[in-house]
Structures are given as C-alpha cells and as structure tokens.
C-alpha cells in the first residue's frame, strides 16, 4: 500500500487516542485554534506527524512565500524585506508579509493564513512565535526557514547570526577606547537569544577582567521606546557607566 494512501487513513480520532486527548483538542491543535496550552498542542502535532497524518492541501504551486517579522518600524527589517522580495521576484515568486509587532497571537493567525493560502514556504524572523506553530507548518508539508533562532527538537532549516564574534569585537573596541564600566541593554530575557547574547557579553568582558554588576543590566523588548527608557535610567546612575552596549 502506498504511503500516501496510508496517510489519508489517519483520522482525528486516531490522533486523539494516541495523544490521550479529545477529538476537539486535536482539531484545535491542527487548526491553530482554541486555548490549548503549548505543551499539549506540541504533543498533538508531533503525534499527528508520527502517525503520518496529512492535511488536505492543494499540491499546485502558488509561487508565494510568507515572511514573518517582528517590527516593520525597526530600521533592521525594511532592508531585509526588500532583499527577500528582490530575490523572490527574480525567481518568479511573490511575498506575503506578516508584521507581528511582537504579538505571538498575531503571528499564529498569520501562519494559519499562510497555510490557508497554500504558500510554498515560510521564513520566520521573530522569536515571539510558539514552536507548535512551526510544527503545524511541517505537518502541512510547508518548508520553513527560521532566522537567528535555534529550535531544539524541531528539524527545520535555520540561519544563525554569529553574534558572539560581533559582541567580542564591540567589547574589544570599547576597552581599547579606555572603557571598563560598560552597561548593556538586552532584549527580553525570557528569550534564549537574549540570554545567549548576555552570556556572550559577560564572556567578552571577562577576557579583560571586567565584571558586569546586575545594576549595569537593563532589559528591553527590542522596541525603540524601551531602549530610550533604559538609557534614561542609565544616565541617572551614580557613578554613571562610560559606555553602553
């Protein structure tokens, strides 16, 4: 029997039985709806994939790619969007853009729309997106590429930035200028990427026997306003740091 024929025989009740949940819970997970907790959703999606469940999707190519970004007003992203779109246009593809404004719910909704539109692939450039959404894309056999995010347990392609080298060079530059009291404005520290950058910053300082006191760490949220607020706090410190990363 062909594998595709076997996949078509997998029903929602089969997934529900294997996962130990209700059929409605399986439906919510597969359609990215409801209020399932992330662990349950991920469990259902993984079991669905293991059983060979394949949602019905048109096989016809749409020559469209979905791109999910965090903040279109951030100066970093417009250049990225233009670059991605230019490459896609050269290959006859169109771009569907989703700006989440760091809202994971908006990101999930947009991913569902990408699936409904039968896009040929998705590029994810936001850390504020639940891993189960990526699993949902895989279940729908939509290729995924994630940017600057290391996702353990999920077999997806990714592009990682060598921030360790960049941070090391920046610290070396500041130290060469004579700075030893350096503050840092981080991203949200509940994100692994922000934690990893903070660790790299500490390591770079250690090479010059420089400690990083807790009162020199200011948590931001990647938005310009939070950076401004953090800088105002830094400027009120006494003694005040001589440099900020």
Q: Mind explaining what this structure looks like?
A:
By secondary structure, this protein is α/β, with parallel strands linked by helices. It folds into 3 domains: 3-51, 434 Repressor (Amino-terminal Domain); 64-159, Rossmann fold (3-Layer(aba) Sandwich), CATH 3.40.50.2300; 163-244, Rossmann fold, CATH 3.40.50.2300. It has 10 helices and 8 strands. The protein has helices at residues 3-8, 12-19, 23-30, 38-51, 76-90, 104-116, 131-139, 163-176, 192-206, 224-235, and strands at 64-69, 94-99, 121-125, 144-147, 157-159, 182-186, 217-219, 243-244. The strands form 2 sheets. Strands 2-1-3-4-5 form a 5-stranded parallel β-sheet, sandwiched between helices. A 3-stranded parallel β-sheet has the order 7-6-8, sandwiched between helices. Helix 7 (131-139) links the parallel strand 3 (121-125) and strand 4 (144-147). Helix 3 crosses helix 4 (38-51) and helix 8 (163-176) runs parallel beside helix 9. The longest helix has 15 residues, at 76-90. 23% of the residues are buried.
């Amino acid at each position: 029997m062909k594998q595709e024929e076997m996949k078509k025989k997998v029903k929602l009740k089969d997934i529900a039985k294997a996962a130990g949940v209700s059929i409605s819970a399986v439906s919510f997970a597969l359609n990215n709806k409801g209020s399932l907790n992330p662990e349950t959703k991920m469990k259902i999606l993984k079991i669905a994939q293991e059983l060979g469940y394949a949602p019905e999707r048109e096989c016809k190519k749409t020559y469209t790619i979905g791109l999910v970004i965090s903040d279109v007003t951030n100066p970093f992203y417009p250049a990225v969007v233009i670059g991605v779109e230019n490459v896609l246009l050269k290959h006859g593809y169109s771009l569907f853009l989703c700006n989440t404004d760091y809202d994971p719910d908006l990101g999930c909704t947009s991913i569902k729309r990408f699936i409904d539109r039968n896009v040929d692939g998705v590029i994810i450039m936001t850390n504020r997106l639940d891993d189960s959404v990526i699993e949902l894309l895989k279940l729908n056999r939509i290729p995924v590429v994630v940017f600057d995010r290391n996702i353990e347990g999920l077999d997806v392609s990714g592009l990682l930035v060598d921030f360790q080298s960049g941070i090391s060079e920046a610290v070396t530059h500041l130290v060469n200028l004579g700075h030893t009291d350096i503050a840092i404005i981080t991203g949200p520290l509940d994100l692994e990427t922000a934690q990893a950058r903070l660790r790299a910053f500490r390591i770079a300082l250690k090479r010059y026997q420089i400690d990083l006191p807790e009162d020199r760490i200011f948590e931001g949220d990647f938005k310009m306003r939070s950076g401004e607020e953090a800088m105002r706090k830094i400027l009120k410190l006494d003694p005040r740091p001589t440099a900020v990363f």
